[in-house]
Design brief:
The protein has about 130 residues and is α+β, with helices and mostly antiparallel strands. The chain contains 3 helices and 5 strands. A hairpin with a 3-residue loop joins strand 1 and strand 2. The structure holds zinc ion (ZN). The site of zinc ion has 5 residues, from helix 1.
Length: about 130
């Protein structure tokens, strides 16, 4: 039976993704619907819906990964700034109900998602660049 959670599918390597980092508890990959190129998601490998379920130890480690990946995104993408967002619940804009943090390269304006899907080859080039700085 297919897991209904797309992030759990990615964690088990059952769905395609453009990975930039992975360890025992955390995985980072590019959003396939980026608001800006280089938009990266940092995801707990255990399925927690929101911040209210994840343990202190796991979130502490996950945010160390956020810092490390944000530095790599910054160097690879050369944006003007980096926005770090974490949404909890549909009302807060959470789309995938599996705990994750967004790292979004910024250029001075609030990003607006227009429904564009970045080409898979462009995503892989971004991922490769980011990986080279980790
Ligand atoms: Zn999940």
């Amino acid at each position: 039976m297919t897991d209904p959670c797309v992030f759990c599918q990615i964690i088990r390597h059952e769905a395609p993704y453009n990975g930039v980092y992975e360890d025992e508890t955390t995985i980072a990959f590019l959003s396939n619907r980026p608001v800006n190129p280089g938009h990266t998601l940092i995801v707990s490998k255990k399925h927690y819906e929101t911040i209210h379920q994840i343990s202190d130890e796991e979130i502490a480690h996950l945010y160390i990964v956020v810092k490390r990946v944000a530095e790599a995104v910054n160097k690879a993408i050369k944006s003007e700034g980096i926005r770090i967002v974490q949404n909890n619940g549909e009302a807060a804009g959470q789309v995938i109900p599996h705990f994750h943090v967004h790292i979004i390269p910024m250029y001075g304006q609030m990003p607006v998602f227009h429904g564009d899907i970045r080409e898979p080859s462009a995503l892989e080039k971004d991922a490769e660049k980011i990986r080279s700085f980790i």
